Amino acid sequence: MTDSTRRDFLQTSVAASLLAATSVSAAAAAANDKPATRFVSDHQHTPVPLPFDPQALNGISEKLVQSHWANNYIGSVNALNSVRGKLTQALSDASTPAYLYNGLKREQLLRTGSVILHELYFSNLGGSGRADAELRSKIANSFGSFDVWETEFRKIGQGLGGGSGWVVLGYNRTLRLLENYWMADHGTAPIDTTPLLVMDMYEHAYQMDYGAAAAKYIDTFLANVQWEAVAKRL
Questions:
Q1: 26, 78, 101, 105 from 96: Cα distances, Å
Q2: Which residue in 88, 104, 134, 177 has the most C-beta neighbors within 10 A?
Q3: Could you write out the DSSP letters of every residue in 100-142?
Q4: pLDDT along the chain (234 residues), means of 10
């Protein structure tokens, strides 16, 4: 075999190996991208880590953030995963009364709301508290001014102080409006609405730092809003 022939043979062999490796990689990637069959009853929610350094919030202690995340959020994730299993068992048992099954469905609704709202809450924290001009203008288009929006948002929160609930700035797709919503619990979300800014008004969100001073917590919450996250949701 001449040097030229040997060189051509090696080049061809290398090219063939690279092509084969590429084909295998592409096939593996395609297999990974193909969605696996999954039923609702099999779903187990994976907790989302805090998206910010818990020491970095201004006026909300690391101890409170960690407690809120580990006890309230993770507690709801665990409860949601558990109730899914109980629903599967109850449905497979023909003797399960409908009212008992609906009790589990109610718990599923509340735990689902708690999990999602907490994830939205934590992910819209960790910012400077300053919305940019474009977002302020969009909010003003629905409320008349950004200040009017903030005044109402604060007032709803103050009304929930000492109890439980959420305040949500949302975009109602049916009405095509940005609106502030009062929510008594995790299961009272407005229909056809995308939540943009979520504030937790359950006492566990502030009592450790502020006691009963809910208004001070609201001030602190707004000073830590990650408005970039709000803009992405919008």
A1: 48, 23, 7, 13
A2: 104
A3: HHHHHHHHHHHHHHHHHHHHHHHHTBSS-S---HHHHHHHHHH
A4: 42 38 38 54 89 95 98 97 94 94 96 97 97 96 97 98 95 95 94 97 97 97 98 94
All domains of the chain in start order, with CATH:
60-123 (1.10.287), 133-233 (3.55.40.20)
CA–CA gap between residue 69 and residue 80 (Å, rounded): 15
- How far apart (Å, rounded) are the C-alpha atoms in residues 88 and 175? 37
* Phi, psi for 169 (deg, rounded to 5): -85, 120
Q: Give the global pTM.
A: 0.82
Q: Which residue shows structure tokens 């023909």?
A: 94
According to DSSP, the residues that pair with 182 across neighbouring strands are 167
Beta strands in the chain (DSSP E): 166-172, 177-183, 193-200
Quick count: other Cβ atoms within 10 Å of Cβ 70?
12
Q: What is the dihedral of CA 51, 56, 62, 66, to 10 degrees?
A: 0
Look at residue 55 and give its three-state secondary structure: coil
Closest CA to 164 of 193, 126, 207: 207
- CA neighbor of 184 nearest in space, from 204, 163, 169: 163
Q: Which of 18, 198, 210 is nearest to 113 (CA)?
A: 198
